[in-house]
Amino acid sequence: MIPPVPGAPAGVLSAVGATPLVELTKVFPGSRFRTFAKLEGHNPGGSIKDRSALGMLIDRIRDGQLVPGKSVVVESSSGNLAIGLAQVCRYFGIRLICVVDPRTNRQSIAVMRALGAEVEMVSTADPATGEYLPVRIRRVRELVATTPFAYCPDQYGNPLNALVHRQTMREIVEGLDGRLDYLICATSSCGTLRGCSEYARELGLPVRIIAVDAIGSVIFGATSGRRLIPGHGASVRPALFQPGLADEVVHVSDLDCLVGCRRLAGREAILAGGSSGAVISALDAIRDRITPGATCAVILPDRGERYLDTIYDDGWVEEHFGAVGHLWKEPEVEVGPC
Ligand SMILES: Cc1ncc(COP(=O)(O)O)c(C=O)c1O
User: Fold this and answer.
1) Most CB atoms within 10 A, among 38, 134, 216, 264?
2) CATH architecture of 11-42+165-320
3) Global pTM?
4) How far is the C-alpha of 198 from the C-alpha of 183, rounded, in Å?
């Protein structure tokens, strides 16, 4: 039997990270650059947030600050982080309360509950902004103040949520033997962007970092607006944000996400979530400015199964966007590598 590596996460948690990096050869027909996709949906909880959840909790569990049967983890999440936390907390027998809102999809809530999390839904949006995030954050503060031995990982301000993504970037860079010219990365808490950016800057890598945000998100100073698709974007600027993390920011609409997702599914047979569609559309938007011969990496943060009722449901699409199917019509049949 192979002996366990001392200090390494065990069981299902040992499957977090080291996700596949695959070349996309069909989604940008005729492009003069190469594109590789980091498939973060292959993490055991289904998203990149497994890395954040593990990174924010594991040392606290190891050093005894979080005690199974006594400590209570409380966090606000629109879905993926809560699932990652539920996975870590269930594995170690730690109680978890997730504060979610009506935009969190039903399947994600069912997964959290199946993994033993207690789910608390805020029902009304912030009257000043119409957003749920400030209400979720207020409720988390109340719970932390009133629950004995409560701990909030605070994904929006916890440096460990950024630190852990140095490893994400390292896997990408090493997977490409150091030949990376552009990284395209969706943002919400800024954990992924900051970790990847800091790793690249510290190693002096000549990679141009493109952050992808939602139209209606305030992270990069734009004004707040209504957004349909969860995952990327934020209605409050996260404490992890710092100026200069990205060389360029591309804002994408809900329709852009949808088109990116449907093209990924239709052309590459990759069923991915809304923010994956966002990064694909963002790269498409800047494709004429990509240096010919360059290598690009896109991070696809989660899988598409949690979006089957929305992005991949023709009725939902028609209701919200009208007849838009022509936007992802298949290109001429192209025989790809086997
Ligand atoms: C689907 C999805 N995409 C993108 C992001 C953004 O990642 P980060 O919080 O590291 O900025 C998240 C964060 O929850 C997410 O769930």
Assistant:
1) 264
2) 3-Layer(aba) Sandwich (3.40)
3) 0.94
4) 13
Confidence at residue 42, expressed as pLDDT on a 0 to 100 scale: 98
Distance 209 CA to ligand 1 centre (A): 16
pLDDT digits (tens, 9 = 90+) for 149-194: 999 999 999 999 999 999 999 999 999 999 999 999 999 999 999 9
CATH topology of domain 48-151: Rossmann fold (3.40.50)
User: How far is Cα 225 from Cα 232, in angstroms, rounded to an integer?
Assistant: 14
Ligand 1 centre distance from Cα of residue 325 (Å): 26
Pinpoint the residues of the chain covered by CATH 3.40.50.1100.
11-42+165-320, 48-151
Instruction: Name which residue sits closest to atom 2 of ligand 1, judged by CA.
Output: 231
pLDDT in tens, 188-211: 999 999 999 999 999 999 999 999
The residue whose CA has the least distance to atom 9 of ligand 1 is 189
Q: Is any ligand 1 atom within 6 A of the Cβ of residue 302? A: yes
Please determine, for residue 29, whether its predicted confidence score (pLDDT) is greater than 60. Answer: yes
Cα separations in angstroms, 21 against 24, 40, 171, 300: 10, 9, 9, 10
SS3 content of the chain, % helix, strand, coil (to 5): 40, 15, 45
Tell me how far the alpha carbon of residue 52 lies from the centroid of ligand 1, in angstroms.
10
